[in-house]
Amino acid sequence: MSALVTNARSRIAYNIAKSLGKNRISVHTADFKPFAMSFYSKYSKSHFIYPSPFSQQEKFIESIIENIKRLNIEVLLPSFEETYLISKFKERLSQHVKLIIPDYSMVLTAHNKNKWIEIAKELNIPVPKTYSICEILENTENIEKLNFPVFIKPKQGGGGWGINLFSSGEDLRKILDSKHYQYLSWDRFFIQEKVHGQVHGVAMLFRHGQLRAKVGYEQLREYPIGAGQATLRVSKRNEEAEVYLERFLGYLGWHGICQADFVIDKLTGVPHLIDINPRFWGSLIQGIASGVDFPYLAYKIAIDGDVKSIKDYKSGVITRWLGGDL
Q1: Residues 6+ away with beta carbon under 8 Å from 242
Q2: Alpha carbon of 63 to those of 69, 92, 132, 195: distances in Å?
């Protein structure tokens, strides 16, 4: 039994390696950066450096295949955004290794807020009111119609990257009119009204459109503050949010891991879907600590074809990302 975990410098990869290693699976780790954290884990049997998946895509794939053959790897588990590239070359890679990741078209849909927002609306999943920046620029009088505060968000991205909050029309107009931001391609961003409430995360593992495991948790603190990754969280159920994500992933026929963030409106209690990560996510340890070992379950589906569904998880479990919290 063996697995390759990529993006070894991330705490996500470290937790994947630890999960698999504890289950007596031979784990090999890899990254395009030297001195990656997981290289030094006792659960990493060996490691290697590959070309950057962001600037040398073809060489990255060739290196992965070469090392899969050399190390006799059975399962490939990408841990972060290299998942998207691996999904793109899924058919080619699957000739050499077992994978549990969605088709590339599904990944692009879930990664692009413009695309998934439209699907969510069709499925009656609440999302915050969202507007095109280009439309606002064509008629700046529309700014006065917005319900402030509002965010400017990138259509693709995560971890708080590129997200800014504006409390008034005057502040927003300054940014949109500023010469300092003329280099930005505004069609890559959108405006979204802020839903006031608590951020609630839901993560799920699917096998060809069928739910196999899930966990929910409340985000108590985050970095960057106000729109970033969870640094302190507690496992907690929100059945409505879980129903919404299961509905969305079932509609797509999802295969693999997916995590989503909701904001629970403090006045109505309604969960609003605000972000989707079509990969392993930063708070992976929260699921493992709550009794849902997502990396091992994903490995078992890749190897055996399926696993017994896990329908429950422990509530009240607190985990902390110390570095981010500090």
Answers
A1: 202, 214, 216
A2: 10, 13, 40, 44
